[in-house]
Q: What sequence folds into this?
């Protein structure tokens, strides 16, 4: 990366960091550049991948039936006309229906079955029993169709204890995640751009 | 026509996906592969619709000279430059599109998310209070896990990394599993409702 | 002003300044610490080592640009490990916000450094919309979804792809991920199509992945910058993740201090507010 390009990158970085002091026009400018580039990135990518690679090239290569998904996809844009927006529902229903069909099996076969199976298979050890207890208590805590009183309330309370431990662990990991991003950017500014250290 | 046709399309599309999950027939597999390509293509158009919508909203802002309309101009110019680069030159390395992504867009996105480190530190100081026993448990676990993940933790107590790993492997795993199972059951139920036409909110109004 | 009030009313910009200094200062004192390898990292490394040399693996880049400081070092370590074992890499991305461009850059740079040739040693299939359709469709036939690669080159003309058309033709999937797409790799590609999966993820995602590891749905895991540093140690190639652990350590201690100080101020205020 040339020093000029690095400087442009660094200036945009510092413009965004200026928000930490207070909101200001330089930050807003950088934020809107980012938003525009992101939207443009998506549009350019979809143009090349969907319109050119998935449609234009195969259509001219003899796969004439691809005109059907092209027409169906085009129906999406009818949504921009308030009077005829209902036509776009067909295209939306096509995608949502297909996704939902995949999800029914993915959620049950891919997540519920393996997770439930493993939970009960691992009861041979103390840790395994703890996991079973934790899973059941967590599920009961999130069951809100009955009031949490009596035995159910006791189990839900144990569930919240487990949940607090998990969320605490999650917070610890989240700190590491966010800090890593900051370290990366500061390394760019201090080492790559300004060469203050190696 | 407005109601039944989309519902029928959703039902047929969803049922085909469910049936193809169970069918070992090569013909069904081939049809399912081609069908999924169609789904991918149509989904791509929906993303384009989103971009068109962003452009429309910002153009309207500029036309009506709404508050902070100059920033909308900035957004539209950036969008146009990126789109033009992607359409005219392609998305490979060495193009304007790729250069803008690698040197401007990506570093800016990283920068925006990196600011969360400052806010998480501020929240740790101002908001994380051990008001109750449960909150204390949460904070205590967070401290153990944070120390267990850094070498200093091992210097304080040699067993701290193992304790942190145990917390992840046992109580954390139990809770995450419970959440996965609960969310998956809910997700499967919602997906089935959509396929069967009982859930129609995705169609919106009009 | 009492100590309690001073602690409670501290301007958050002082906190920001301390955080900033904690990141910058370790860069001038490049101390590296010994990394203790966790079982999840070791399992992932061992799995890669157990694959026959020359195996074809899949390295999906399910990453947004926002998490590059965490995910890029992990991705580079994975690719370097694969190239070191003469493995071939098939890559793709379901993240339309930058994933294919990131995959393109990392693979090209690491490929050039290792003397690898595009199309023979590695391929970037690029992006297709709707990850549910993509992951399900590739199980039947990769070509049903990807007839061309990221640059538009027909997949049939790439030597590496000649014998690769579904997950069955791939020995292992080493996913690099910072979002929930990984859940679908595990539940669709792993469970439905029987693929073996390991992952390098951001630290935010790591806690959830333990449930998949315990259930045997994933063989190993690199969690965040620490996971990356552990993997770099196993490879004998300390790089960005290892360098960043110094600052990580300092900031973790600082945030623990903030939590303690904040609570000290809180409890002091509560005690002062109690009627005598």
A:
């Amino acid at each position: 990366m040339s020093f000029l390009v690095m400087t442009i990158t660094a200036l945009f970085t510092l413009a965004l960091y200026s928000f930490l002091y207070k909101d200001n026009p330089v930050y807003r400018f950088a934020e809107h550049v980012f938003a525009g580039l992101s939207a443009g990135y998506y549009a350019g990518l979809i143009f090349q991948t969907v319109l050119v690679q998935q449609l234009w090239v195969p259509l001219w290569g003899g796969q004439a039936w691809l005109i059907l998904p092209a027409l169906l996809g085009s129906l999406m844009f009818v949504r921009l006309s308030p009077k005829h927006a209902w036509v776009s529902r067909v295209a939306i229903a096509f995608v949502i229906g297909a996704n939902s069909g995949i999800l029914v099996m993915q959620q049950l076969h891919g997540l519920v079955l393996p997770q439930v199976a493993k939970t009960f298979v691992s009861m041979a050890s103390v840790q395994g029993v703890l996991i079973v207890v934790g899973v059941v208590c967590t599920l009961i805590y999130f069951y809100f169709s009955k009031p949490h009183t009596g035995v159910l309330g006791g189990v839900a309370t144990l569930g919240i204890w487990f949940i607090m431990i998990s969320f605490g662990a999650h917070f610890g990991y989240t700190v590491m995640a966010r800090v890593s991003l900051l370290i990366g950017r500061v390394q760019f500014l201090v080492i790559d751009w300004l060469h203050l250290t190696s | 026509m407005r109601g039944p046709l989309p519902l029928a399309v959703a039902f047929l599309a969803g049922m085909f996906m469910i049936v193809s999950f169970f069918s070992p027939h090569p013909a069904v597999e081939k049809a399912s592969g081609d069908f999924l390509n169609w789904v991918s293509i149509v989904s791509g158009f929906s993303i384009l619709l989103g971009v068109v919508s962003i452009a429309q909203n910002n153009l309207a802002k500029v036309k009506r000279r709404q508050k902070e309309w100059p920033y909308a101009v900035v957004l539209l110019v950036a969008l146009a430059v990126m789109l033009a680069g992607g359409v005219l030159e392609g998305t490979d390395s060495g193009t304007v599109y790729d250069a803008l992504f690698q040197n401007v867009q990506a570093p800016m996105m990283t920068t925006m998310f990196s600011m969360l480190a400052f806010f998480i530190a501020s929240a740790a100081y101002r908001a994380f209070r051990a008001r109750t026993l449960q909150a204390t448990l949460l904070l205590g676990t967070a401290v153990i896990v944070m120390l267990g993940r850094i070498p200093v933790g091992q210097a304080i107590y040699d067993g701290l990394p193992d304790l942190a790993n145990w917390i992840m492997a046992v109580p954390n795993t139990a809770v995450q599993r419970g959440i996965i199972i609960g969310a998956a059951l809910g997700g499967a139920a919602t997906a089935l409702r959509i396929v069967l036409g009982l859930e129609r909110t995705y169609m919106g109004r009009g | 002003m009492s100590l309690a009030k001073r602690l409670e009313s501290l301007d958050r910009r002082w906190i920001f300044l301390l955080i900033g200094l904690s990141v910058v200062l370790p860069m001038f004192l490049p101390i590296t610490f010994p990394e203790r390898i966790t079982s999840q990292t070791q399992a992932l490394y061992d799995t890669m080592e157990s694959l026959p040399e020359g195996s074809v693996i899949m390295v999906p880049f399910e990453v947004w640009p926002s998490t590059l400081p965490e995910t890029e070092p992990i991705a580079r370590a994975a690719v370097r490990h694969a190239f070191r074992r003469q493995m071939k890499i098939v890559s793709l991305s379901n993240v339309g916000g930058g994933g294919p461009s990131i995959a393109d850059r990392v693979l090209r740079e690491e490929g050039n450094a290792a003397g690898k040739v595009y199309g023979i040693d590695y391929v970037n299939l690029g992006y297709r919309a709707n990850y549910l359709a993509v992951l399900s469709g590739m199980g039947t036939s990769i070509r049903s979804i990807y007839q061309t690669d990221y640059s538009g080159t027909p997949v049939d003309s790439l030597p590496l792809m000649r014998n690769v058309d579904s997950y069955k033709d791939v020995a292992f999937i080493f996913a690099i991920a910072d979002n929930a797409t990984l859940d679908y790799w595990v539940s669709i590609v792993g469970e439905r199509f029987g693929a073996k999966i390991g992952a390098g993820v951001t630290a935010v995602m790591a806690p959830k992945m333990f449930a998949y590891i315990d259930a045997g749905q994933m063989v190993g895991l690199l969690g965040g910058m620490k996971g990356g540093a552990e993997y770099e140690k196993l490879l004998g190639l300390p790089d960005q993740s290892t360098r960043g652990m110094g600052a990580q350590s300092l900031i973790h201690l600082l945030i623990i201090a903030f939590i303690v100080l904040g609570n000290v101020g809180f409890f002091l205020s509560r005690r002062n507010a109690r009627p005598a």
